[in-house]
Structures are given as structure tokens and as C-alpha cells.
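Board notes (copied after class):
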Amino acid sequence: MKKIGVLGGMSWESTLQYYRLLNEDTRGRLGGLHSARVVISSVDFAPIEKMQIAGEWHAAGEWLAAEARALEAAGAELILIATNTMHKVYEQIADAVTCEVLHIADVTAQAVREAGLERMGLMATRYTMEDAFYRDRLAASGVDSLIPDLDDRGELQRIIYDELCLGVISPSSHDTLIGIARRLIDRGAQGIVLGCTELELSVRDDDLLVSVFATTSLHCRAALDWALAHDSH
């Protein structure tokens, strides 16, 4: 199996899920005591979050690009940016290394298309919902995005940063998230994209009557597909 590099820590709560999912899926595919070949760079999220607020995306991209180079130097042959939001600086990161950097929106769009759907409700951080970088990437693959209204976008931001990133799983916030999803469905969404890696800590596949596309799980599955398909052993 090829070695997967995980550029994480944003937040470590979701990076933990990356490590768990990669290993559970490896064991499921290969059986026995098999585990994933993974190297992780876990950054301090607090300075990154301050850069997000200040709009200092290029500086954040330079920081993460340096971490990606360190992952490649440690033997990573494929890199996962373990956060949807920081795919805003995907090009800076991908340009910094020679190995492939698997874009989370691309694997999500592929899953949506394979399900025969094309109009998704997008739940994520405000940056991911309101900026064009993520929605345009989905649109390039034929997937249209609906985003929540302003108040619901504010609630999503609060729940993600003030609760889920800190490991707080609140039943009332879970209900709020489901309400936001249902309003998107009422507006015509054929399914829901959980476009923030922390949202899977609260929202489950069976919470809604439409398909839920969990980006963390999809990202990990696609990475293992690649790692196993390119294995020469």
C-alpha cells in the first residue's frame, strides 16, 4: 500500500476521524491485522483560524504548503488536506509538492454523480459556503450547490467552531443542523453535502430522508482506492 499523508489539526477532532476511517477501511478491505500506511502532520489550528478571520489566506497557504513538503519528505505519496475550508488554498499546497494532493470536492462530486444527483445542499463553514472556491469546484463536475440563508450560515459557523471543533456534540445543535438541512431540501436539494469535516461528528446518514454525502468518509475511501490501486507489491 502506498503511504498517505494527512495534513490535519484543523481541527484535530476531525483529523482523528481521518486516522480511524483510513485504518478501519484498510482492515475491512485487507482483513486481519492490516492497517493503513499513514503519516500525519497536525498543525496548531488557533493561528490558522486567526488567519481565516483576518483574510490572510495566502499566509495560511504558505504555512500549510511547508507542512505538505514535510509530509512528502516523510514518504507521503498522496496527501489529504483534512479540512474542507483550507482547500481554499489547495493550489498553493498542491504546487508545493510533487506527489498528488487529492481534492475533497472532486471525490465528493464524483460520489454525487454516481448517485445520479446534481443539486446538493451544502452545509459547511461560512468560508466554504460563501466563497466560490468550493462551489465552483463542484460545479465544474456538474454538481449545483444550494447554501443556507444568512442566519443558518451563522448557526453553522457557530456550531462548527464553538462546539464541534472542541469536541462538543450537543443534541440541541444536532437538531439545529437537521433543521438547516431540511430547509435546504425544501428548497430543492436532492441531497446534503457535509462540506465540513466536523459535521460528521453530529449528522448521520439516517438523520435525513435524502442522501447525505459525508466528505471525510468519501475523502478517506478515495485515498485508499488510490493507495491500493497504485501498490506495486
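Comment from the instructor: Residues 4-103+218-229 form a domain with the Rossmann fold fold (CATH 3.40.50.1860). The mean pLDDT is 96.
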